[in-house]
Amino acid sequence: MSVPREKTVKKNLITRRGFIQSSILMMAGTMTPLSLTLAQGRRVERPGLQLYTLRADMARDFEGTLARVAEMGYKEMEFAGYFNKSASQVRRILDQNGLTSPASHIQLAEVRGNLEATIETAATIGQKYIVVPSLPGDERSLSHYQHHAETLNRAGEASKRAGIKMGYHNHDFEFEETSGRIPYDVLLEETDPDLVDFEMDLYWIKNAGVDYSTYFESHPGRFSMLHVKDMDEFGRMVEVGRGTIDFVEIFSHQDSAGIEHFFVEHDRPVNGLASVSDSLYTLRNLTF
What we know:
This protein has 288 residues and is of the alpha/beta class. The protein has 14 helices and ten strands. The longest helix is centred in the first third of the chain and has 26 residues, at 5-30.
């Protein structure tokens, strides 16, 4: 008795499909966690937020704002002020919401004049980095940058005993040539990698017309933190995913650059909570 051709084809398809499925399962069973990650694509597992974005909300309702961003799905908070809350109060609120704070922006004046208390606060909250967010406008000569590097090294030596590193966050002015040198290069070259890391702000380095990858390549492992910000075709700061910055390509340098923390930020959002919600959607769905 002959078998109809269409039944034979269907049987062969079923057999072939079963073989492919079995092969995939067998391959998956022999893959290491790293190879599985590479095959599936990596994602930002612990999305972070620079709370300067929500400074008005934080001033009105510190605890409620942290609860809201935790509900959205943020995991890591980078502070830009504690709004009269003690370090222990901040730690309690973070713990209640399942949040951690790897870093905080601390003004240079505080690092210079109140370092011991700054380190104690960071240690209580559980932070790993104290980040200088900017420099005074009248302290941007070449000799000033050399002194700033010395300050970061000294502060890094003191904070190291508490398991904390110093960090520096860029804008665009650090890439303007000064006395024949690029100030950002001075900070990178004259700080100790064991004491000082860098937080690259993706909007501001693009605004300066600088290729971030040259720094990832020339100073591997120095960029433990990113400010994840976007720029549209007119140079305006926009929510992550609404501009022209290629985050997938940038994030693909994670291992060589040393990137550990991804902090969403928008300096001047129209609606802070809506802005960070939109940016988080993009960040969580990126595969790199």
